[in-house]
Amino acid sequence: MAYRTRTYIAGEWDGDSNAIGQIYSWNDGNKWSLDFVDAHKNKQCYDSSMPCTIKNSLSERMGRSKIFVLVVGNNTKSTRKGSCSYQNCGNKRYDYFSGQYNCGVIGKSYSTESFIDYECRLAYNAWRNGEMKIVVLYNAATVDKSKCPEILKNVGTHVAMKSYNYVWQAYRYDYNKVKNAIEG
Question: What is the pTM of this model?
Answer without folding.
Answer: 0.82
